UniProtKB/TrEMBL annotation:
Major localization listed first in the record, in broad terms: membrane
Keyword field contains Transmembrane helix: yes
ABC transmembrane type-1 domain span: 58-274
Assigned keywords, A-Z: Cell membrane, Membrane, Transmembrane, Transmembrane helix, Transport
Transmembrane segments: 54-84, 96-116, 145-171, 192-215, 253-275
Membership in a protein family: Belongs to the binding-protein-dependent transport system permease family.
Protein name as it appears in the record: Sugar ABC transporter permease
UniProt keyword Membrane, yes or no: yes
């Protein structure tokens, strides 16, 4: 185990340590060309926390994360329940469709979504206009609210297959005799679901929710691509694109590293309750 553990520790530990060190230095474009970085301690963190741009981005990120995680979980659970009641042919066709959506590369999927919501030639504007709405030439990406509506559609569409497949696999492992016993004892469909099915798949539910929260906090590609397609970066930045803006666009890699560490801390804080529930359940088991 020791060689594998050392290799894993080096692969995961070095980038994290390097990022911590970078966040404590003034590291800009000059340092990229060989100038020695200046050690400034917590200066980047003080400047970051005092920056008026950070907190709106944090609130936006947390709200976007929980809305997307909640929608993804609800739709994925609904599809998983439906798949348990579908015929074999219908279930296989549904699973193939979900698999194709999940396997599609992010950039390719974003190209399709951009065409759908295109201002001049988008199918969405054409359809809504045909239905009587005033959407001719409407730009979905200029307004932050409609921008995040599109972003939510994209992120949820790409995340639902994982949740649906995982929960469907868990639902197939629920003991049928326990469900039948509850039905014989007079429990209705809702009671069986709440008091028998959900407790049986609780460990899987916790893992799915935990992963979904982490993934939705780290969303970058979808937001960045939509910003490039016409969104206003200042009003639509999430933490992932904010770190990119500080480092790659702004050239302040020390500040970007501090923002990335802040993002890591936020992820730990938001996921800690789920981790505690998982550990408690493991101890009880």
């Amino acid at each position: 185990m020791l060689p594998a553990s050392l290799a894993l520790g080096l692969a995961l530990g070095y980038p994290l340590v390097r990022q911590v060190v970078l966040s404590l230095q003034e590291f800009g474009l000059a340092q990229q060309f060989g100038q020695a970085p200046e050690w400034i301690g917590l200066g980047n963190y003080r400047e970051l926390l005092g920056n008026g741009e950070l907190w709106p981005v944090v609130l936006r990120t947390v709200a976007f994360c929980f809305v997307n995680a909640g929608l993804t979980f609800a739709i994925g659970l609904g599809l998983a329940l439906l798949m348990t009641r579908m015929s074999k042919v219908t279930r296989i066709l549904t699973q193939c469709g979900l698999l194709l959506a999940w396997a599609m590369p992010v950039v390719a999927a974003m190209t399709v979504w951009q065409f759908l919501f295109d201002t001049e030639y988008g199918v969405v504007n054409w359809l809504l206009t045909a239905l009587g709405g005033d959407f001719d030439g409407h730009s979905w990406l200029l307004d932050p609210w409609s921008f995040f509506l599109v972003a939510t559609l994209v992120v949820v569409w790409m995340s639902v297959p994982f949740v649906a497949f995982t929960l469907y696999a868990a639902l197939t492992q629920v003991p049928e005799d326990v469900v039948e016993a509850a039905q014989i004892d007079g429990a209705g469909a809702r009671q069986r679901f709440v008091h028998v099915v959900l407790p049986s798949i609780r460990p899987v539910l916790l893992v799915v929710v935990l992963l979904q929260v982490i993934w939705d906090l780290r969303v970058f590609t979808q937001i960045y691509t939509l910003q490039k397609a016409g969104g206003v970066s200042k009003d639509t930045n999430l933490l992932g694109t904010y770190v990119y803006t500080l480092g790659i666009k702004g050239g302040d890699f020390g500040m970007a590293a501090a923002a990335a560490m802040f993002m890591l801390l936020l992820t730990v804080v938001l996921t800690a309750p789920y981790v505690r529930m998982m550990l408690k359940q493991e101890r009880d088991a």
